[in-house]
Amino acid sequence: MLVYHVLFVVVLVGTEAFFTALATMNLRHAERTVAEEEGWLRERVGVDDPRELIDYNRLGTGLSQLQTWISLAIVLLVLYSGVYADIVAAIEATGWPLVVRGTVFVLGALLALQAISLPFDIVETFVVEEQFGFNQQTLGLWFRDLVVSLAVMVVLGGVFAAALFAAMGAIGGLWWVGAWLLFVGFALVMQVLYPRVIAPLFNDFEPIEGGNLEDAVTDVFDRAGFTCSQLYEMDASRRSSHSNAYFVGFGRTKRVVLFDTLIDQLSIPSIQAVLAHELAHYQHGHTWKQLAAGAIQVGVVLFGASLLVEATWLYDMFAVAGQPMYAGLGLAVLLLEPVARLSAPLTNRLSLAHEREADAFAVEVADADAMIDALTDLTGENLSNPFPHPLYATFHYDHPPIPERIRHIQKTADGRNERPV
Q1: Cα–Cα distances in angstroms (integers) from residue 105 to residues 108, 156, 297, 335, in the given order
Q2: Is 421's pLDDT higher than 50?
Q3: H or E element: which one contains 253?
Q4: How far apart are CA 371 and CA 367, in angstroms?
Q5: pLDDT one-digit tens code per residue, 124-160
Q6: φ/ψ (deg, to 5) at 240
């Protein structure tokens, strides 16, 4: 049994140590490169004080690492102090059906994780983001968002957990197949449910109608061969000055959303380029390909979990009596989560290819210089690190670093200009 304990701790602690080392390497690499590229950052990206970019990323990384290690310490303490076994015993003593016991366990775990992250969320919003001028929300709005997000989490998490444990009770050892089908169905439903039901709980979405912006958007739609009547501006500025845009949904439910901060920060040609990039994900089927890749990954993880929940040693390690499947599933998730993180380079490769394809599409539909302006402007406005360490980017970046994207866009534009008429 000692061997299992050693392996368990090594997997969890070793994985976190590896990613902490990556984060440290990334910050040091950024500090060196920012010093070398200070002129480019000032003139092209619009960062007046490059040290501010480093400070923002250093504080964000430090806070994230602190949260990670404290969370891991709490998890290990709960397991090795016997609290985990006591919680499971208390749930088992109720005599409730598996569906109820499993759902209570899952919701309790989700709420506990939320409680652990709460102080870090407060510091991130009202200290780090506030210090660098990004935070725009009041404490009242933040608390209101917390309550609503918890309610959404309980409802969606409860429904999914109940369905999962119902599958466990109904089909036994093949429960992971039922869980996989639930995941695929849930992912599809969320494409419709999120923009129409969940997102409006937090933000207002106003249709973009009339004016230069609608004309510019319509022009991009026409050039891209895209039809969509649902184009919205989201009031992101109520909470943050960070900017973004996204495409969501399929069929008649698809919609394009532009943050009001993005509209304020970018020129019309740059907005067109960003919009063309987002449309490419739909036109080239990236949404479906990513969904398929995610389904494969989840299927592998669920199959691994199905093997682990049958392993008696997993329960014996922490003196969990009765071997209830939900308790084994919780322990299996702890072991499989590091494996999923370490496999990130495989999943990122597909996303990186899609982003390059989307950038090339933006060059064809819009304008290369406008796309480059959008990337540099957004990098400067968000104080993003444009110079990640290559190994860090391999594990964390599903978009190519900005300098790489700029080179790719320029190369694509040059190739288009050299085509014979």
Answers
A1: 5, 15, 24, 18
A2: no
A3: none
A4: 6
A5: 999 999 999 999 999 999 999 999 999 999 999 999 9
A6: -155, 155
Please pick, among 124, 129, 359, 377, the residue that the annotation labels catalytic.
359
3-state DSSP call for residue 229? coil
Looking at 67-76, 201-210, 222-231, 373-382, which range is the least confident one?
A: 222-231
Residue range(s) defining the domain that contains residue 408: 1-421
User: pLDDT-based confidence at 416, cuts 50/70/90?
Assistant: low
- Give how many domains the chain has, as a whole number: 1
For the chain, report the end-to-end CA distance as a whole number of angstroms. 72
- Annotated catalytic residue 367: no
Q: What is the number of alpha carbons within 13 Å of residue 405 lying toward its C-beta? A: 29
Strand partners, 68: none
Residue matched to tokens 């040091």: 28
Determine contact, residues 314/328, Cβ cutoff 8 Å: yes
Active site residue 359: yes
**CA dist 241 → 46, 49, 142, 237 (Å):** 16, 18, 15, 5
Each residue of 222-256: pLDDT tens digit? 888 877 667 889 999 999 999 888 878 777 777 88
Which entry of 124, 129, 233, 278 is annotated as an active-site residue? 278
Q: Strands 255-259 and 231-234: what pairing? A: parallel
DSSP state letter for 44: I
Instruction: Indicate the pTM of the whole model.
Output: 0.90
Q: Is 389 helix (H, G, I), strand (E, B) or coil?
A: coil
Q: Quote the tokens at residue 154.
A: 């309980």
